[in-house]
Amino acid sequence: MLRQLHSEQGILRISIAGTLVVAVFGIIVGLQAGSDAIVFDAFYSLIDAIMSGLALTVAILITRHTKEEGVRRLAERFNMGFWHLEPMVLALNGTLLCVVALYALVNSIISVLEGGKTLEFGIAILYAAVSATVCFTLALLEHHRNKEIRSDFVALDIKGWIMAGSISFALLIAFALAVLAQGTRYAWVAPYVDPVVLGTICLIIIPVPLSTVRKAWSEILMVTPTELKVHVDTVARRVVEESGFSGYQTYVAKVGRARQIELYFIVPSGWPAMTLDEWDAIRDRVGQEIGDEGPDRWLTISFTTDPEWSR
Questions:
Q1: Domain check: are 290 and 195 in the same one?
Q2: Which of 38, 59, 164, 165 has the least CB density, counted as fewest CB within 10 Å?
């Protein structure tokens, strides 16, 4: 298990396995205890496991495509890479989590209006304690490893574990208080504990995936990342001033883990002839100044005397 934690794919595999165990356990306990909140918690985890599986598939495709031993047939069919799938998965994941939480919120309101429901608090408390422990432990382990890996998929998975753990911990407190209230003048509260806690949790977690959805959609729509654009423009401007070119045009986008950069230098007409090695030397210099060279940087540098070719 410890070896699996050293890679993005390994972490996602462990997360999927852990999520499936918690989800199945939760569904069984939730149905037996009669708790909508527990069933929601388990179903939320199940969706997270499915999306983590999809994220793992995309991560494997991206890794194989950027290495020589990658699958040749896939590389030929998708020779522009698989980076574009990453924000799509993140957007779908975040959207599904929001929709599920919104649906559960509506059900909790209906349950309150109908007078709540009676629960088997003993087994419900056991589930909440076990689930919270597992969720927070995995979130802590993934957070520690992701400081080095820096994966958006793992970062979203950590949020999922934190949310699931928070739900379970809130359920633990609520169920414990309901048990303490039994036999007192506050016993009437017990039937409302499950739907009220469920509704409260939904209100808290609905906004959490929204930032991920917004970021993912900005990448799907290829909205220009300001910081990257400023950096590339600074490099291009310096090259133009030092080389005597007429101008430049840059196009940048961030799609998943990939940075796509196209840079056109406008060369004055009648420019003295240069060998390809000399033009490549300029490209090498620009690439070094832009930085972050690797399989996830898509850099195109062109030279032309006609500005129309840069538009």
A1: no
A2: 165
